[in-house]
């Protein structure tokens, strides 16, 4: 009993708080005390659900801290997060009363050291290369004489000034459209990608698109390593030139572009020809054409001279006279041949005529024979059996003919036939 009384009195002397009250006081103290803090550690248990928020644990050898990156901050990350990566985070502590836990709400993330940044860059490069975004077969040649050129860059930077200065010196009459975009810091990658997409929608279409900026550190140029920019360049319908930094600076945009220029000034040299070089080329071509034409004319003249020196062209009347003489000779040979042929034919006809005369019935008649024919049918009578009494016949003599009527028919000179 005395013990219970003592306990009750001790309890009433102290202020009793609920869990919510204590948690609220802790929340106020922690969040006000650690409103901005830098924490370094190894990233583990990384996850990124469809909401776009990033959840992970930051740990070292003896402790760990839960952390979150809200989607608005996550989209501005310069590299991909993965388990095992050493990072440095800036953020503030946040107490979550329902669980009585606290977490680091991250506002900025950096790889721990340049080596980590380069590692992140290498991983992204391997990923995009595996998709074929850097393949050589995708590269397109730049037009030799572009009329409309686009440049995605900062309108106040040195890159556009250097580009325009070289462009004006090398080639005039080119229209240049500038698509303003931040080229450094948060949100720069999104603006560059949007500028590339806008350039592809311009009408009339651009002939060449340049994307770039002047030199800087790896962190300054990081937006040209971000996936959004690389994909925008790789999918551009316009032949694209990457002109980022100086000669030693290499970004993923350089691998995705059709042509890499070491500097914005060199981009102008790669995009347009030199007016002086073109003039010299035209003069050289003109000289070669004139020389070729002169050589051809000389060859034609020599050929004409050769033809003119031939007898047929030098003394054409000689050819006519020779031809006339050949015609006369041919005419004489033809006449001789015709006369000879006529004599041969005449002799042949005489021979044939003699043979024909010897076989002619008229010659036979001349020797005292005659031919008898039926007067009506003109059929030659060769047998007495062809005749009958009263039949009219014609007897052809050597000179003249006799028409008579058959009075009597005999089979032979000694046999007579009865007449009726």
Automatic annotation (TrEMBL):
Q: Which Pfam families match?
A: Exonuc_VII_L (PF02601), tRNA_anti_2 (PF13742)
Q: Which InterPro entries match?
A: Exonuc_VII_L, Exonuc_VII_lsu_C, OB-fold_nuc-bd_dom
Q: What is its main location?
A: cytoplasm
Enzyme class, UniProt record, top EC level: hydrolase
Reaction catalyzed: Exonucleolytic cleavage in either 5'- to 3'- or 3'- to 5'-direction to yield nucleoside 5'-phosphates
One cellular component (GO) term of this entry: exodeoxyribonuclease VII complex
Q: Which UniProt keywords apply?
A: Cytoplasm, Exonuclease, Hydrolase, Nuclease
Q: Which CDD domains match?
A: ExoVII_LU_OBF
KW Hydrolase (keyword) present: yes
Please report the stretch or stretches of sequence annotated as the Exonuclease VII large subunit C-terminal domain.
133-352
Q: What is its EC number?
A: 3.1.11.6
List residues of the OB-fold nucleic acid binding domain: 17-110
Q: Which GO terms describe its biological process?
A: DNA catabolic process
Localisation: Cytoplasm
Tell me the protein family, please: Belongs to the XseA family.
Function, please?
Bidirectionally degrades single-stranded DNA into large acid-insoluble oligonucleotides, which are then degraded further into small acid-soluble oligonucleotides.
HAMAP family attached to this UniProt entry: Exonuc_7_L (MF_00378)
Quaternary state and partners of this protein? Heterooligomer composed of large and small subunits.
* Record protein name field: Exodeoxyribonuclease 7 large subunit
* Gene responsible for this protein: xseA
């Amino acid at each position: 009993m005395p013990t219970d009384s003592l306990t009750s009195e001790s309890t009433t002397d102290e202020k009793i708080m609920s869990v919510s009250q204590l948690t609220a006081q802790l929340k106020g103290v922690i969040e006000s005390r650690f409103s901005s803090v830098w924490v370094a550690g190894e990233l583990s248990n990384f996850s990124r659900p469809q909401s776009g928020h990033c959840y992970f644990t930051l740990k070292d050898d003896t402790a760990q801290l839960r952390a979150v990156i809200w989607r608005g901050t996550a989209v501005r990350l310069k590299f991909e997060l993965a388990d095992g990566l050493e990072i440095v985070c800036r953020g503030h502590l946040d107490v979550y009363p329902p669980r009585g836990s606290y977490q680091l709400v991250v506002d900025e993330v950096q790889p721990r050291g340049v080596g980590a940044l380069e590692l992140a860059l290498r991983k992204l490069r391997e990923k995009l290369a595996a998709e074929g975004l850097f393949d050589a077969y995708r590269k397109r040649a730049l037009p030799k004489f572009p009329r409309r050129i686009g440049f995605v860059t900062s309108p106040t930077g040195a890159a556009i000034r250097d580009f325009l200065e070289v462009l004006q010196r090398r080639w005039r009459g080119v229209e240049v459209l500038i698509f303003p975009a931040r080229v450094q810091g948060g949100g720069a990658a999104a603006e560059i990608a949007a500028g590339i997409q806008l350039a592809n929608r311009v009408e009339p279409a651009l002939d060449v698109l340049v994307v770039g900026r002047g030199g800087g550190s790896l962190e300054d140029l990081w937006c040209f390593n971000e996936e959004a920019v690389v994909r925008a360049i790789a999918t551009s319908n316009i032949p694209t030139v990457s002109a980022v930094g100086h000669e030693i600076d290499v970004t993923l945009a350089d691998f995705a572009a059709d042509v890499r220029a070491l500097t914005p000034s060199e981009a102008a040299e790669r995009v347009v020809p030199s007016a002086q070089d073109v003039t010299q080329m035209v003069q050289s071509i003109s000289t070669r054409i004139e020389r070729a034409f002169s050589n051809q004319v000389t060859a034609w003249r020599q050929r004409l001279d050769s033809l003119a020196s031939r007898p047929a062209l030098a003394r054409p009347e000689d050819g006519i006279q020779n031809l006339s003489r050949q015609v006369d000779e041919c005419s004489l040979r033809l006449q001789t041949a015709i006369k000879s042929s006529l004599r041969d034919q005449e002799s042949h006809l005489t021979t044939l005529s003699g043979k024909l005369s010897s076989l002619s019935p008229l010659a036979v008649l001349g020797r005292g024979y005659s031919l008898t024919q039926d007067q009506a049918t003109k059929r030659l009578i060769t047998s007495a059996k062809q005749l009958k009494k009263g039949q009219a016949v014609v007897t052809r003599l050597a000179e003249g003919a006799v028409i008579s009527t058959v009075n009597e028919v005999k089979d032979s000179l000694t046999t007579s036939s009865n007449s009726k």
